[in-house]
Amino acid sequence: MSVVGFDLGNLNCYIAVARQGGIEVITNDYSLHATPSCVSFGPKTRVMGDAAKQQANTNLNNTVINFKHLIGRRFTDQRTQQIRQWIPCEMIQLPDDHIGLKVNYLGEQRVFTPEQIVAALLVKLKQITENNLREVSKVTDCVVSVPYYFTDAQRRALLAATQMADLNCLRILNESTAVALAYGIYKQDLPAEGEKARNVLFLDVGHAASQAYIVAYNKGKLSMLGAAYDLDAAGRGFDGVLRDHFRHDFKERYNIDAATKPRAWQRLLEECEKLKKQMSANSTPIPINIECFMDDKDVSGKLQR
C-alpha cells in the first residue's frame, strides 16, 4: 500500500486503500466504515470520531461538528453565518476576519480554527488506518476528496490541515471525479472509442450539500459534461424541517419549547435524522419517542412521508 484515500464528509468520513482485490473501505475502532466528523474537547483529553459523537450531548458546548464548509471561509461570509446555526460551540471572529471556534480544553478557554479541527480529525483517520493495516507502520501519503465547487482558498486551507496532521497530500481530488472513476474503472461494457458515449447522471444528496453531475463514458475515457450543486437542499436541511415540525408539535401538546435548551434542540435534530432515514424506506407512519426530553417529560409523535 502506498497511498490512502480520505473522504471528508460533513457528517461522516471514510477511508479507502488499494489492495490486491481492489479498493477497500476500511473499518474504524468500532468496526464501522463511517467515522463521524466530530471533535470534542474535555478537561483532560481531546477525542475525535465515534468517541466524540458519543459524548456530544453531554459536552455540547465543547464539541465541534458541521465544520467542513467553514475551512477557507471568512467569518463575515454569508454562508458562514448560515452554517453557524448548526454548530453547538461558540464561534467568534478572529483578526483578519478568520473564524474561531471557542471551547474549554484542559481546563482553559481555547480557540481553534476550522483548519485545526480538520487536522485533528485527519490525525484520527490516520490512526485508524495505521491500526487497520499491518503492512505499514506509518501513513504519510494521502489523497483527499473535496466537493468540486470548493474554492482555491478552501483547497489551500485543506492542504494546510493535512500538513498540520503530518500528512503528505499528493492530490486534492474532486468528489465528482472520484465518483466518475469509481463507476467507470471496472465497467467492461462501455462503448468503444469513436462510438456514441454512454451518459450517466450522478446525484449526491449529502449532509450539507447536494451535487449532480453528468459524465460521458467511452472505453478508457470519460468526460465531465456538466455539474450543479445546492448548499441548501441537503440532508441536514431536511432534518431541520422535521425538527421544526416536532418543535411546534411538542410545544402544543407538551407545553415545552425544545429551541430554548441547546441539548434538547440538538437531541431532537439527531432523532429527526433517524426518522428521516426510516421514512425514506417506509411509507407507513414512523414513530418518534424520546425519553426525559425536557423537564423530565417523555415525548412522542409520528410522521408519514
Automatic annotation (TrEMBL):
<dbReference type="Pfam" id="PF00012">
    <property type="entry name" value="HSP70"/>
</dbReference>
<comment type="similarity">
    <text>Belongs to the heat shock protein 70 family.</text>
</comment>
<dbReference type="GO" id="GO:0140662">
    <property type="term" value="F:ATP-dependent protein folding chaperone"/>
</dbReference>
<dbReference type="GO" id="GO:0005524">
    <property type="term" value="F:ATP binding"/>
</dbReference>
<keyword id="KW-0067">ATP-binding</keyword>
<protein>
    <submittedName>
        <fullName>Heat shock 70 kDa protein 4</fullName>
    </submittedName>
</protein>
<keyword id="KW-0547">Nucleotide-binding</keyword>
<dbReference type="InterPro" id="IPR013126">
    <property type="entry name" value="Hsp_70_fam"/>
</dbReference>
<dbReference type="GO" id="GO:0005829">
    <property type="term" value="C:cytosol"/>
</dbReference>
<dbReference type="GO" id="GO:0005634">
    <property type="term" value="C:nucleus"/>
</dbReference>
<dbReference type="InterPro" id="IPR043129">
    <property type="entry name" value="ATPase_NBD"/>
</dbReference>
